[in-house]
């Protein structure tokens, strides 16, 4: 697809900066991490906001900052603690990378968060966007950012018709983002680089949305190529996502003497180090819970009761988990050794970190126990 020429608009970048800063000053949401310039606090917010909505992140961020208020406290925290604080946000590699980076800062930088962009970029789990966001917001440096919201705003405003993930188009978007934030650098009294980058993210989140954008109240609509040409829905030109793959599992809350069997997921797999109820993937066949118990645990249960059914998504997979409850009266001795699992009470289970689906199984199990 040919590039849409838009040279006239590119000469108006100083005006865009002025309008964006003015709009952000009046319309920025009151978010807790906007009340600090602590690079650690801003770093935590940026990592949490990846793949996660703001309204979801707010209570997580507030709890995190109460429990682990400094880089040192994160570096020294037990893995169980950081996983529990992160429980429900998903993509747990993020939180392990954060701790790894905090430990590096403690050892190599005397516990002080780096100020230079290149040094921030070297930290585990931090890419160009996150490093740019931290440096601009915490230190008011003219470092560009380019996330989904900013891509949407820039492709529409500047009429960039190519797929923004293509190398050439992506490089152009980074150049535009850099030019915008550089022009904001002298405007410290108006928030400068920090507010300019946040204004782009905020505009994409609140006004320039993927569907039904609020163009009539957009502060830069008269400078927007897509709006002026009535082509807003054509930008950004992203490839269609591949169809999601359905997967089905049967999970079992196996009970013995008031305790339940759970196991910890190993290193190198999705949701590594988190806990789960033993489960088996179903290969297109209807679930036979008695047969599944026999396959997993090596005994035939007298009674298996449906507990709950959970539907959720992980990347390109659409998962269905059918959970069951059964009593392990006749299970083999030392069953937990073969499964690398542990028998724990409900209060003990609530201290562990579970993936979202298994956390819901635990909640359903709690409700059943309360009714007894």
Order of helices and strands: HHHHHHHHHHHHHEEEEHEEHEHH
How much strand content do the residues show?
5-15%
Our measurement of the CA-to-CA distance between the termini, rounded to an integer number of angstroms, reads 64 Å
Q: What oligomeric assembly is this protein in?
A: single chain
CATH superfamily of the largest domain: Hypothetical protein, domain 2
CATH architecture group name of the largest domain: Orthogonal Bundle
* Radius of gyration (Å): 25 Å
Describe the largest sheet: 7 strands, mixed
Low-confidence stretches: 1-6
What is the CATH fold-level name of the largest domain?
Endonuclease III, domain 1
Which structural class is indicated by helix and strand composition? alpha+beta
Count every helix, treating DSSP H or I runs of 4 or more residues as helices. Answer: 17
Characterize the overall form. elongated
- Total number of distinct structural domains: 2
CATH class of the largest domain: Mainly Alpha
* Average pLDDT taken over every residue: 93
Task: Summarize this entry quickly.
The chain has helices at residues 7-10, 13-27, 39-49, 54-67, 71-76, 79-86, 93-108, 117-121, 128-139, 148-158, 167-184, 192-206, 225-228, 289-297, 335-339, 346-349, 356-371; strands at 245-256, 259-264, 275-276, 279-282, 304-314, 317-327, 341-344. By secondary structure, the protein is an alpha+beta fold. The chain folds into two domains: 7-234, Orthogonal Bundle (Endonuclease III, domain 1); 245-371, Nucleoside Triphosphate Pyrophosphohydrolase.
């Amino acid at each position: 697809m040919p590039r849409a020429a838009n040279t006239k608009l590119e000469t108006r970048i100083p005006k865009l900066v002025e309008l964006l800063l003015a709009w952000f000053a009046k319309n920025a949401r009151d978010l807790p991490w906007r009340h600090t310039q602590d690079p650690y606090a801003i770093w935590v917010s940026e990592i949490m906001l990846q793949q996660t909505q703001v309204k979801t992140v707010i209570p997580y961020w507030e709890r995190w900052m109460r429990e682990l208020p400094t880089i040192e406290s994160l570096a020294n925290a037990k893995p169980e603690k950081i996983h529990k604080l992160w429980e429900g946000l998903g993509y747990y590699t993020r939180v392990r990378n954060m701790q790894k980076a905090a430990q590096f800062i403690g050892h190599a930088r005397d516990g002080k968060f780096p100020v230079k962009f290149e040094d921030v970029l070297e930290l585990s789990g931090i890419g160009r966007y996150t490093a740019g966001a931290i440096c601009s917001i915490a230190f008011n440096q003219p470092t560009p950012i380019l996330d989904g919201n900013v891509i949407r705003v820039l492709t529409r405003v500047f009429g960039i018709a190519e797929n923004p993930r293509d190398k050439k188009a992506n490089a152009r978007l980074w150049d535009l983002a850099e030019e915008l934030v550089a022009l904001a650098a002298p405007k410290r009294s108006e928030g400068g680089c920090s507010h300019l980058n946040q204004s782009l993210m905020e505009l994409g989140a609140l006004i320039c949305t993927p569907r039904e954008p609020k163009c009539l109240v957009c502060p830069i609509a008269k400078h927007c190529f897509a709006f002026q040409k009535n082509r807003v829905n054509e930008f950004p030109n992203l490839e269609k996502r591949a169809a999601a793959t359905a997967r089905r599992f049967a999970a079992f809350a196996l009970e013995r003497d008031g305790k339940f069997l759970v196991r910890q997921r190993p290193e190198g797999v999705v949701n590594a180090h988190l806990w789960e109820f033993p489960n088996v993937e179903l290969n297109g066949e209807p679930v036979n819970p008695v047969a599944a118990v026999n396959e997993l645990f090596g005994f035939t249960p007298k009674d298996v009761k449906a507990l709950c059914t959970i539907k959720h998504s992980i990347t390109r997979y659409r998962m269905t988990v059918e959970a069951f409850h059964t009593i392990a009266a006749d299970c083999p001795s030392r069953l937990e050794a073969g499964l690398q699992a542990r028998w724990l009470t409900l209060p003990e289970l609530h201290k562990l970190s579970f993936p979202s689906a298994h956390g819901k199984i635990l909640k359903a199990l709690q409700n059943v126990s309360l009714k007894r």
